[in-house]
């Protein structure tokens, strides 16, 4: 029974189906290329945000540590810590304002 040929001839592929498959394949390739990430590293906004965070935390923590050391050796218990914290915040915001006022391609001004 398996040796018998079927009475029907196989249907030939339609040229329209081949053209449609080729167009679908091209569209999928374009879509994959469009969806690929364009930037491989960290962009400038991400780096500047990290720098602002580091300046802010560094200024505050540095002021706290310096104020605590002054309090420990001078015996001025809350005042050294408060003055150090205030100076740390002032320095942090000064650095942030200086960074915000520089253009992306410019080098920061030297003092």
How would you characterize the overall build of this protein?
The chain is an all-alpha fold. 69% of the residues lie in helices and 0% in strands. It is built from three helices and no strands. It has helices at residues 15-35, 44-74, 77-101. Helix 2 runs antiparallel to helix 3. The longest helix has 31 residues, at 44-74. It is rod-shaped, with a radius of gyration of 34 Å. The model has no long low-confidence stretch (mean pLDDT 85).
Mean pLDDT: 85
Count of helices? 3
Taking the sheet with the most strands, its summary is: none
Q: Please provide the ordered H/E string of secondary-structure elements.
A: HHH
Helix content: 55-70%
Q: Span from first to last CA?
A: 97 Å
- Backbone CA Rg: 34 Å
Global geometry: rod-shaped
What structural class do the secondary elements suggest? mainly alpha
Low-confidence stretches: none
- Strand portion: under 5%
The count of DSSP E runs of length 2 or more, i.e. the number of strands, is 0
Oligomer: single chain
Quick summary:
The protein is an all-alpha fold and 111 residues long. It has helices at residues 15-35, 44-74, 77-101.
């Amino acid at each position: 029974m398996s040796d018998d040929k079927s009475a029907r001839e196989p249907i030939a592929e339609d040229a329209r189906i081949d053209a449609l498959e080729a167009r679908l394949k091209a569209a999928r390739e374009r879509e994959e290329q469009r969806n690929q990430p364009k930037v491989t590293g960290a962009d400038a906004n991400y780096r500047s945000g990290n720098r602002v965070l580091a300046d802010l935390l560094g200024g505050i923590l540095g002021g706290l540590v310096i104020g605590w050391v002054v309090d420990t050796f001078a015996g001025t218990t809350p005042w050294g810590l408060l003055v150090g914290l205030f100076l740390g915040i002032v320095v942090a915001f000064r650095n942030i304002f200086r960074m915000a006022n520089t253009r992306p391609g410019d080098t920061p001004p030297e003092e």
